[in-house]
Amino acid sequence: MSPSRTKTPPPDRPAKFPKNLADDSKATKVDSFDARTVSAADVTSSLIKNGGCVLRNVVSVTDLALIEKDIRPWIEKDRPWAGDFFPPETRRVMGLVEKSQVFTERIPGNQLFREVCDTLLTSVHESWLGQKLEASVSRPQLNNTIVFSIGPGARRQELHRDDMNWHNELPTLASHEDYEVGRDAAIGFFVAGKKTTKANGATRFIPRSHLWAKTQPPNEDLAFYAELEPGDAFIMLASAYHGGSANTTTNEERLILSCFMTKGVLRQEENQYLANSLESVKRYSPDIQKMIGYQVSNPFLGWVNLEDPRQLLLQEGQELRTDLY
Ligand SMILES: O=C(O)CCC(=O)C(=O)O
Ligand SMILES: [Fe+2]
């Protein structure tokens, strides 16, 4: 009867994360890793310790050029935001699943990013079904996709936490060693489409602010600026304070290719089902389709006709292997 009953045992994950890396609890230095060689475990440990880190060489120059080709016409079509959150010099492109396959496969689809998200955003819930204890696994899903083009003269964005979206309640943690998987609702990934410097408005972030209570306001004096070469990325827990900085240059565009991943049990910020046509989602592998949100979060979230929503993506003659989830 259930299309989504868990078939495999839940992954064996400790409630608390082990001590990691150079463990100096006072240091606020942000780690920088080469994405081509670092392990997902080291990135995960670094996020738990500091709330964010830099990953070098995430997207190749060739792929950046392909993404640029897909997005530039949309950047040119966008008009200034009427509210305060983005400065008027900012142009944005959303709905990247439809607009750029290479963006979707290389940025939210990046294996390292996916593995880190799997570790920190997968939830496992146990519930009695009569006398049988059933475990349900819910895997992360794409939360949003936004390209930011931020022009010269743009003022800074206020420091904020993106997890306000989910009304996330956070108690203070005395140390990152007390961090428990499940505290964060989402993880952000900001890839530089062009060189990003403090002068042209690099994302600034407060290291270790993911350990602060929800009630604690940000403090600009503690900010670290994520300066990136094209193709490098900044990865960050959604509970960490951050914001785009002022673009003080007269002629440099800051181009950021961003996405967030969220837990499978939470509502996606960008409505993937209305932002992107079914036809555009059909182009992707089953793995990417599931990441976009075409999967059931076990036990019963997200079905269509009590079936896996990927039934809607099948081409003529294709059958869905229900053992895929
Ligand atoms: O512009 C940036 O670097 C960050 C943007 C951001 O944090 C947001 O729009 O929520
Ligand atoms: Fe943000």
From TrEMBL:
Recorded GO MF terms: dioxygenase activity
Record keywords, A-Z: Dioxygenase, Oxidoreductase
Entries under InterPro entries matching the protein: Phytyl_CoA_dOase-like
Lineage: superkingdom: Eukaryota
SUPFAM superfamilies per UniProt: Clavaminate synthase-like (SSF51197)
Gene3D superfamilies with a match to the protein in the record: q2cbj1_9rhob like domain (2.60.120.620)
Disordered, as annotated region: 1-28
Protein name per its UniProtKB record: Phytanoyl-dioxygenase family protein
